[in-house]
Amino acid sequence: VAAIATAVDDWIHGDISDDDMWAAQSDGTQLIVDIEKAGAPSHYIGRLMSTNGDLAGALTRIQVIRNTSFIRAGYVLMQLLVGIVLLLLVIIDFTSPIMRWVVPFVLALAYCYLILLVHDVDNPFAGAAAVDVSPVDRARKVLTS
Q1: Fewer C-beta neighbours within 10 Å, C or N terminus of the chain?
Q2: Cα–Cα distance, 35 to 72 (Å, whole number)
């Protein structure tokens, strides 16, 4: 179990490939079979199989999110459109001199924040809004000590 936890933790941190993680995770199924052969009660085996299936499902969802190739052209188009809007805000003649500076500045901040937010949402395992993987790190430490 410690080897599986280590492989999953290393995979989440990008230290091993998807194939290596899945090879280690498949060892969990063999471990359950070995436990059953050793005479463990069937209700424990059922719980282990259910937990192993839940782990495989969660790892599959993580892999899909990490490996989804988002359309780079969409990002370029979004940045181009934001740039055009900001350029138009600079060109527009506001009646108040204060508004001439405040409106473009506030909207520029909002648009830049939204662009960064989209990047973080598209890849939740990197960036400022990264997913907290400390529970996986703690589980690995407990299992390996």
Answers
A1: C
A2: 48
Q: Are 15 and 133 in contact (CB under 8 A)?
A: no
Ordered per-residue pLDDT tens for the chain, 145 residues = 889 999 998 998 889 999 999 999 988 888 999 999 999 999 999 999 999 999 999 999 888 877 776 677 778 888 899 999 989 988 888 888 888 888 889 999 999 898 888 777 776 666 656 677 788 888 888 888 8
Rounded (10°) angle between helices 2-12 and 18-37: 160
Ordered DSSP codes for 93-140: --SSHHHHHHHHHHHHHHHHHHHHHHHHHH-TTSSTT----HHHHHHH
Kindly state the greatest CA–CA separation across the chain.
84
Distance, CA of 94 to CA of 89 (rounded, Å) = 9
Q: How many CA atoms lie within 13 A of 35 on its CB side?
A: 17
Other beta carbons less than 10 A from residue 5's beta carbon: 19
